[in-house]
Specification:
CATH class of chain B: Mainly Alpha
Low-confidence stretches of chain A: none
CATH topology of the largest domain in chain A: MetI-like fold
Largest sheet of chain A: 2 strands, antiparallel
Mean pLDDT of chain A: 89
CATH superfamily of the largest domain in chain A: MetI-like
Number of domains of chain B: 1
Order of helices and strands of chain B: HHHHHHHHHHHH
Number of helices of chain B: 12
CATH architecture of the largest domain in chain A: Orthogonal Bundle
CATH class of the largest domain in chain A: Mainly Alpha
Helix content of chain B: 55-70%
Number of helices of chain A: 11
Shape of chain A: globular
Helix content of chain A: over 70%
CATH superfamily of chain B: MetI-like
Oligomer: heterodimer
């Protein structure tokens, strides 16, 4: 028991305490050295939130939408290739697999600044489409990895059986593969969503300020002197992903129960 | 070989965007570093960007500083992450779920973590106040300068906070497939816990540790968001130099930014080759990337 509480205490101090400090700042009207806790509390930062609710809601919504779109695009990009990598051995597979992981490994600046020029030429710089494409390109390796492990968790006999009974490829994909891959899709999608939702630079570079993002909205405030408002808005960063995870968890759970898979 | 056309066909949804955006982006970066496709600018010397870059001492210092920050932060994160994951794994299984709080930094964006570093480490920040209350310092002027310095402690601290949980996830996944009877056996033969950790557990974990090292090292070397929030300092991270050349200087100087990016890309490529060699030795299921 001592070991359990010791470790939990250590994790709380290391990983949660900095977040708790943000919460204290968000509630404080003034916090000066050397007070350990703010001397005065008020709700000023919350009135800021109410006053600017439209801008905040718009940027949060925009970030959520392009991040969800990136999840969808990465899924479409990787669902078929992941199957080949998981099931087949073909010439050049290892090299290709390694090559396809590269966008998540090398610093995204290296290809994004060149891609920005291409996007300008094609006319999708400063558009939501451009932002979704660049975020998908940066984050799809996580989806690819998750899906190829997902394909390895069930036997391909199920699929052969369905084919013998005359099911079409599309039918097999939608009624067998996707439901069985759901946990892998959720795992990969979570990372793609988090990476896209958190990203500041790529959205700023390709979106050019015309595509609203929450990271872009709060960035100037982080360097302002008003730590109280900045803290509250930073905490808000946690709300959307956590709410979404809980929602997805319920949906997946219900979907599995309905199909009697749980 | 019969399947080849079909394999190629099902790889297309990935191959096309990969070639167009990723490879296309890299090719443009390299071309612009050589002064080609530079809008209406014309360069007689195709190595103009590289010459400027090598003449810029600031660039060299930034590159060295970035290497130092990335190596330090990643090493600390790996030591913490491996140790913490091991400690969780040693707990009775029913308690593993409770330790989930360590995943909070994974959800926080880098710009949020950078902001937290400012609040905690500033001269009149929370850690300074804590040191005062503990009687370690008499005034905030005695608190060490941790922000925006050549020591890079602010950036290193923020990366350690963000990366430790990442290492924990990878190492814990690896540990959960460890054959625990091996450990019982070692215990029966009289090995000490330290000995067990270093001769049995650590070698088993090396593939996961190597993978994390390469991913996190490249990420913190070239990452932009975190140093950008923490503000400019001297020498500063290399990504900030690139940003300055790209956005704030004359458009005619863009080949310099692109030359810097090309060098970073080549460096990362060397690391990826190392990554593949290591990843190939791992069991497929262990690779969460």
């Amino acid at each position: 028991m001592i070991r359990v509480w010791g470790l939990l205490g250590l994790f709380t101090l290391m990983f949660l305490a900095p977040v708790a400090v943000l919460a204290l700042y968000a509630l404080s009207s003034s916090w000066f050295f050397p007070e350990l806790v703010p001397a005065r509390f008020d709700t000023r930062s919350f009135s800021y939130l109410v006053q600017h609710r439209l801008d905040i809601a718009l940027s949060l919504l925009s970030s959520t939408l392009y991040s969800l779109a990136a999840v969808a695009v990465t899924l479409i990009m990787t669902v078929l290739p992941a199957k080949q990598f998981a099931r087949l051995d073909f010439y050049g597979k290892t090299v290709l697999e390694g090559l396809f992981l590269a966008p998540a490994l090398i610093p995204p600046m290296a290809f994004a600044m060149g891609a920005h020029y291409l996007f300008l030429r094609v006319g999708i710089a400063d558009t939501g489409l451009g932002v979704v494409l660049i975020l998908s390109m940066y984050s799809y390796p996580y989806m690819l990895r998750a899906l190829s492990s997902g394909y390895q968790t069930y036997s391909r006999d199920i699929e052969l059986c369905a084919r013998n009974m005359g099911a079409s490829s599309w039918r097999i994909l939608t009624t067998i593969e996707l439901p069985l891959l759901l946990p892998a899709i959720v795992a990969g999608g979570t990372i793609v969503f988090l990476v896209s939702f958190s990203e500041y630079f790529l959205v700023f570079l390709i979106g050019g300020g015309t595509v609203p993002s929450y990271a872009g909205y709060i960035f100037p405030l982080l360097n302002s002197s008003d730590k109280s408002v900045a803290s509250l808005l930073t905490l808000l960063f946690l709300v959307v992903p956590i709410a979404l995870f809980i929602l997805i968890d319920r949906i997946v759970y219900n979907a599995y129960r309905k199909r009697g898979m749980m | 070989m019969m399947r080849h056309p079909r394999v190629l066909l099902s790889l297309l949804p990935l191959l096309i965007p990969f070639a167009a955006i990723f490879l296309g982006g890299i090719i443009i970066t390299v071309l612009q570093s050589l002064g080609i496709l530079m809008f209406s600018y014309h360069y007689d010397d195709i190595f103009f960007g590289y010459r400027e870059l090598l003449a810029d001492r600031w660039f060299v210092e930034s590159a060295l500083f970035s290497l130092y920050v990335a190596a330090t932060a990643t090493t600390i994160a790996i030591i913490f992450g491996t140790l913490f994951a091991y400690l969780i794994w040693r707990l009775p299984h029913r308690y593993h779920g409770r330790t989930v709080i360590y995943k909070v930094p994974l959800i926080l964006p880098h710009i949020a973590v950078g902001f937290m570093a400012v609040i905690l480490l500033a001269k009149t920040g929370v850690l300074a106040a804590l040191s005062y209350q503990l009687g370690l310092i008499d005034s905030f002027t005695q608190f060490p300068d941790l922000l925006y310095r050549a020591s890079g402690i602010d950036i290193i601290g923020a990366y350690v906070y963000k990366e430790t949980p990442f290492v924990m996830v990878l190492v814990y996944a690896m540990l959960s497939r460890f054959e625990s009877r091996l450990m019982d056996c070692a215990k029966m033969l009289g090995a000490s816990p330290t000995r067990i950790f270093f001769t049995l557990i650590l070698p088993f974990l090396m593939p996961a540790i190597n993978t994390s090292f390469i991913i996190l090292f490249i990420f913190s070397f070239g990452g932009f968001d975190l140093p950008f929030v923490l503000g400019d300092s001297y020498p500063g991270m290399i990504s900030i130099r690139i940003y300055d050349y790209f956005f704030h200087k004359d458009l005619a100087l863009r080949p310099v930014a692109m030359a810097m990016l090309t060098l970073i890309f080549l460096m990362s490529l060397g690391f990826i080759i190392a990554y593949l060699k290591i990843a190939g030795k791992m069991m497929p299921a262990a690779r969460k990337l």
